[in-house]
Amino acid sequence: MRAIIFANGILSMPDPPYQLFQPGDMVIAADGGLLHCLALGILPNVLIGDFDSIHPDHLASMRAQGVQVIQHPSRKDCTDLELALHHAQRSGAEEIILLGALGARWDQTLANLLLPVSAEMKGVRISILEGTQEIRFIDSRSAPAIMDIQGKPGDTLSLIPLVGDANGVTTHGLEYSLQDKNLLFGATRGISNLFCEEQARIELKHGLLVCIVSRQG
Question: Which residue ranges form the domains of the chain, and what is each CATH number?
Answer without folding.
Answer: 2-131 (3.40.50.10240), 135-214 (2.60.120.320)
